[in-house]
Amino acid sequence: MISSIAELISDRIGTMPAGERRAAQTLIANYPLTGLKTVAEFSTAAGVSSPTILRFVARLGFQNYPEFQSALQDELAAQLQSPASRTLDPSSTGGAASPMLEATLDNMRETFRHLTDKQLADIAARLAERRGKTFLIGGRFTDPLARYMAAHLAIIQPDVYHLAGQESIWRDRLIDMGKRDVLVIFDIRRYQESLVRFAEKAHQRGVQIILFTDQWLSPIARFARHVIAGRTAVPSAWDSSAALFVVAETLIGAVTRQLEAAGAKRIRDLESLR
Amino acid sequence: MISSIAELISDRIGTMPAGERRAAQTLIANYPLTGLKTVAEFSTAAGVSSPTILRFVARLGFQNYPEFQSALQDELAAQLQSPASRTLDPSSTGGAASPMLEATLDNMRETFRHLTDKQLADIAARLAERRGKTFLIGGRFTDPLARYMAAHLAIIQPDVYHLAGQESIWRDRLIDMGKRDVLVIFDIRRYQESLVRFAEKAHQRGVQIILFTDQWLSPIARFARHVIAGRTAVPSAWDSSAALFVVAETLIGAVTRQLEAAGAKRIRDLESLR
DNA sequence: GGAGCGCTGTATCTTATGTTACGTATTTTG
DNA sequence: CAAAATACGTAACATAAGATACAGCGCTCC
């Protein structure tokens, strides 16, 4: 049963065209506030035109935009009035422990709250497909995440490549990329120009892009087939990539399970590793 | 100081005429949703006319109605994202969400429960000391964590090196290491022989070792000055490094703060980065 | 009890928002 | 590779929203 608009969206996001999917992702990333703004604001936030927004809400089953906004407001009202379930904290940690830890845990819950099992399953299925090659790359601080994921994926399937080093090096690798291939990109603020350029070129070649970004969405989102928006705010001078890290681990686990279920011969060797 | 519109209202409600007071009460009673609707809806809800609503928001200091609504939305956005009021009701996200996530969150709480603030502060202080060089290295799956930490530390202080590549390469770097230096090692099961050998030799040269490992403790622990034991068990074919990742981020934040407090000139340039 | 002031609502106007139609670009299919 | 179908954006349109002017009413204070 579908009880919230967010669920409704993640349920149908797979059947949406690119533009509407971007609208959906933008809304989910900052749910539900973007939906309470005007069509014009929503459209610029998502980087699409107003009609696309209207088509998006129409596809969700609403007659018009105001009706959609009313639904969001009703939902929000219910949420705000719910028996202030705050302080639910198991207090096993005592709360006071570390503000950094608390913020990180919240980021993870929030990140996964906007991420449905189906989305994860879809992405994992795409990664488990063995049609083409898998490339991974990240930005200044997120490249280690790309490496981490690559280190695992490379064991359970062939043709997994981490793109390292200078921009010129990976730009040349574009030659190897085509429609059947997948590119996993990690990009959080401040978004890197070089990565955006690279993503655009890869997209032009038909490469399917899976983007790990923050809640404000890297500009790469416009080229991406799948977008994972993780929360990054913590009481520190730096942004936190921990939520994205956990999503990555979850995906690694999911891909492994799928390949296992498919009986890939390579997986049996895994046993000897453990 | 007045931080929310609700406070602003209750502050001035005494000076308002009857009609506007009804508007104020209606808004407070269903805060802030009534304020997000149209003027017409607001007015009928309060049982007054539209101009009264507009006079009401004008009295609060807003130039026009949209400006008032934007302020409410900003407030709501902050509220929805702040950890305290997050409703993450156990029914919708709860338990069922992702066993992977739940296990990871547990791991983090457990990891930090066995990690005192003092330990973290001590380690951060050691890393913030600028007496010698800082080297970081990790195992097959944990090396990305070493990279991640190195990427951050290298910005806020000089002489931070990540040891990459073949074993022979970093073995030769031992020549550069001495009593004043720190070596951060990440090593979880299955513990790597090469890392143990390396740690032992570094230890013999007087290098202080900070070890990130799992709860069963890598053999390197016997050489380490500080040991951080993170929980790694998750329902997956792989172990999770997420808890260690969060500890690493916490340390990065702590080191940054300490250097900031010490007024390190290098830190001031950080501003330009953000 | 009467005059002045202030609050409130009705009606009108203006703005900008949501909507629709249509041509172009892109993707999919045979 | 060609043709059809689908998706997207530009621009014009209609509508509903917020803003304003003005008159009526109640209240207070002399």
Automatic annotation (TrEMBL), chains A, B:
| The organism of origin for this protein | Mesorhizobium hawassense
The keyword Mitochondrion is assigned to this record? no
The record's section on Pfam families has: HTH_6, SIS
Keyword annotations from UniProtKB, A to Z: DNA-binding, Transcription, Transcription regulation
The entry lists its GO molecular-function terms as:
carbohydrate derivative binding; DNA binding; DNA-binding transcription factor activity
Keyword Transmembrane helix carried by entry: no
Annotated HTH rpiR-type domain residues? 3-79
Annotated protein name in UniProt: RpiR family transcriptional regulator
Q: Which GO terms describe its biological process?
A: carbohydrate derivative metabolic process
- InterPro entries cross-referenced by the UniProt entry: Homeodomain-like_sf, HTH_RpiR, RpiR-like, RpiR-like_SIS, SIS_dom, SIS_dom_sf, WH-like_DNA-bd_sf
